[in-house]
């Protein structure tokens, strides 16, 4: 009848989604889903019933039928734990404060068979760019099973969604405008400081890994924060924003003529000489998103400066490595940390 709008929103916090009914005339919101977690809804044409599909860190996935007022009409389905019987690590989600007072959500997988009296290496997995959110109150905390695999091998795996990442509001996301990597590195270092404060973390054995924007951040941290990370794996990395697609770049960096310092300060070519530790770069030979020239030019400069980096190409893949080769990719990434961290 035009009086109500049904939405899914992040009103409670940034890592959950809930359904609401909004009164168009007075703006009042009624929450329709109560179970903690990530909800998505599908309503019937008459807007009298909806399917509520959700999961959280303890629930692999459920489907309920609810009335338009949010009352439970029928329990439809509840998933069994697909990881039942596997030896898994302990996973926690928490918050840290950025230097300007924002809550930063983090996720930490402890090594399997964790012993607080031992010292463990840590791999920081990151993206920290626009449009992406890695940490949610969903099954596995939004992570994939590689985290559990690394934990079974004796590594902790840590992730923090710093400023610029999605679903946290304009101020949080726009903080990186014109200076991509600068603010994000500050937030990643908040995570590093947190890890260094844990007695069981071996601070001499910290690694970092990411793909695309995460590859850019990995390379940034390895060269602009030298000595913090012993090992890095950068996949499909942006190296210089002047080589990236205009639609994306000028949205976040403005035109080069209007922001010359921003482009200069956040081009990674000027930091190659500062690179420390072991760095593996991986690129798809047919990457149409982050063109192959990014990492090739970085490699060329590293050679000229006498910096040793490791390099690997998937000849027939675009920006993401898919299919059978994806298993090969995860094996390569993991082995690089096993050999060097």
Give the structure's gist in a few sentences.
The chain is an alpha/beta fold and 341 residues long. It is built from eight helices and 15 strands. Helix content is 24%, strand content 29%.
Report on this structure.
The protein is of the alpha/beta class and 341 residues long. 24% of the residues lie in helices and 29% in strands. It has helices at 146-152, 170-174, 182-196, 213-224, 246-253, 260-265, 293-304, 324-340, and strands at residues 4-9, 18-23, 29-31, 38-43, 49-56, 59-67, 72-78, 91-97, 103-109, 120-125, 156-160, 201-211, 231-235, 278-284, 310-314. It has an eight-stranded mixed sheet with strand order 8-9-11-10-12-13-14-15, with helices on both faces. Strands 4-5-6-7 form a four-stranded antiparallel sheet, with no helix packed on it. Strand 8 (91-97) and strand 9 (103-109) form a beta hairpin. The mean pLDDT is 96.
Q: Widest sheet: strand order?
A: 8-9-11-10-12-13-14-15
Low-confidence stretches: none
Overall 3D form:
globular
Number of helices: 8
Structural class: alpha/beta
Mean pLDDT rating = 96
SSE series: EEEEEEEEEEHEHHEHEHHEHEH
Task: Please give the radius of gyration in angstroms.
Answer: 22 Å
- Percentage of residues in DSSP E strands: 25-35%
Distance between the termini: 62 Å
Q: How many strands?
A: 15
Task: Estimate the helix proportion, in percent.
Answer: 10-25%
**Main beta sheet: strand number and arrangement?**
8 strands, mixed
């Amino acid at each position: 009848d035009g009086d109500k709008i049904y939405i899914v929103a992040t009103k409670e916090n940034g890592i959950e989604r809930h359904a609401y009914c909004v009164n168009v005339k007075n703006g009042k919101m009624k929450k329709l889903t109560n179970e903690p977690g990530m909800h998505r809804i599908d309503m019937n044409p008459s807007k009298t019933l909806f399917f509520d599909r959700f999961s959280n860190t303890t629930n692999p996935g459920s489907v309920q039928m609810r009335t338009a007022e949010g009352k439970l009409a029928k329990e439809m389905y509840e998933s069994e734990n697909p990881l039942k019987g596997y030896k898994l690590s302990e996973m926690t989600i928490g918050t840290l404060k950025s230097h300007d007072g924002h809550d930063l959500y983090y996720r930490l997988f402890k090594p399997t068979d964790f012993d607080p009296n031992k010292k463990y290496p840590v791999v920081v997995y990151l993206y920290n760019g626009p449009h992406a959110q890695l940490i949610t109150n969903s099954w596995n905390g939004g992570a994939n099973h590689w985290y559990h695999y690394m934990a079974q091998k004796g590594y902790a795996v840590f992730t923090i969604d710093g400023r610029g990442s999605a679903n946290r509001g304009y101020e949080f996301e726009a903080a990186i405008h014109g200076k991509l990597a600068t603010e994000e590195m500050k937030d990643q270092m908040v995570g590093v400081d947190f890890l260094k404060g844990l007695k069981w973390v071996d601070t001499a054995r910290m690694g970092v890994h990411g793909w695309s924007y995460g590859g850019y951040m990995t390379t940034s941290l390895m060269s602009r924060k030298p000595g913090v990370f012993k090992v890095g794996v950068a996949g499909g990395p942006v190296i210089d924003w002047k080589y990236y697609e205009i639609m994306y770049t000028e949205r976040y960096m403005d035109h080069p003529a209007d922001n010359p310092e921003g482009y200069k300060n956040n081009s990674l070519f000027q930091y190659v000489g500062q690179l420390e530790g072991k760095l593996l770069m991986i690129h798809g030979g047919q990457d149409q998103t982050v063109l192959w020239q990014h990492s090739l030019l970085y490699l060329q400069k590293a050679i000229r400066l006498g910096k040793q980096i490791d390099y690997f190409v998937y000849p027939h893949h675009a920006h993401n490595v898919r299919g059978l080769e994806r298993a090969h990719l995860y094996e390569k990434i993991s082995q690089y940390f096993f050999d060097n961290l």
